[in-house]
Amino acid sequence: MSSINYTTRIEGQTRINTILWTVPNFINLLENRSCREFRTDKSKDHTLEIIESRFQLKMQFLGRDNDIIEIYYLSPNSVFLKSILTICLKRFEERSIVIKEYHTVHANKWQYLATLFKRDIASYDGRDIFLLSDGSLRLKFQFLVSNDIKIDRSNVFEAQLSNDIENLLHNGMFSDVTMKSVEGDEYKVHKAVLSSRSAVLKAHFEHNTTECFTNSIESPLEAEVLREVLTFIYSDKAPKVDEIPEKLLAAADYYQLSRLKGLCEEALHKKLTVDNAIETLQLADLHSAKTLKQLTLEFIKDGQAKLITKTEGWAKVKSVELIKCIYEYIMTDDAEADIK
């Protein structure tokens, strides 16, 4: 049973929520492979009204041996906040893990905050042991919520603007170009919107290209993928990123959509297993997804290498460079590890 210490204070227009989350016997929790998620307890000492007005926290354990720990939080209200995560060490020391500047958070939706690695939390060679003397893991969360009315109005305006622009895609009003999927499905779109979001699409209209004269773009994407890419271009949202992250990563790389690429990397990281690690690494390498490549190599290095060499993906590897990359990363100390 974990313990929670929850305090709040007001400084000007900012409400500061500080949470100390202590998880006892954390190594035992990690070694329980049947445990894939751990959440803050809803104390019986508080009324339902108090519970529902507070931030909730959870950990998700990934990898065969719970090697990767992802930290999430849930806000009871839609707010504009800054989040800070700190690990409490021995002798009252602290180490900041992540600081996310002010951004909009929607109510009752789990928000990703940080990733921790088992070997950093409890390495047995005496380095970077992020545990207290009694074996507990103590995390300090600070959520700085702005009560500035001007900021809140700005967020509402941005949301409405996003919806209005997305409606242009759905109704095709004033469209001046057509995009076609490989199957021949057509989408009525707008040069100004496409050009403002993608340098690749912008190039279609800047020079004396065929598209300039025909007002038609032949896309190499399947209809399902093209529809999702256009949805992202118009709304900055990717509803199917968890369903088809591999195809969307390739599309994001092709059209140079960096934020969509980041969403795909995050989705693929969540799906990472021993069986698909090699395929994920090859995909990351092919599409220059540096963050995903780093996380996948960390996953392989962190005790999974022997298991991965027995998978079908490993048996099909033909790239000597990829094998060399894995070997060098495994043999390199953490402080020297770098992805080229």
TrEMBL record:
Residues 175-242 form the BTB domain. PANTHER family: SPECKLE-TYPE POZ PROTEIN. This is Speckle-type POZ protein-like. SMART domains: BTB. The gene is LOC106120790. InterPro entries: BTB/POZ_dom, SKP1/BTB/POZ_sf. It holds the Pfam family BTB.
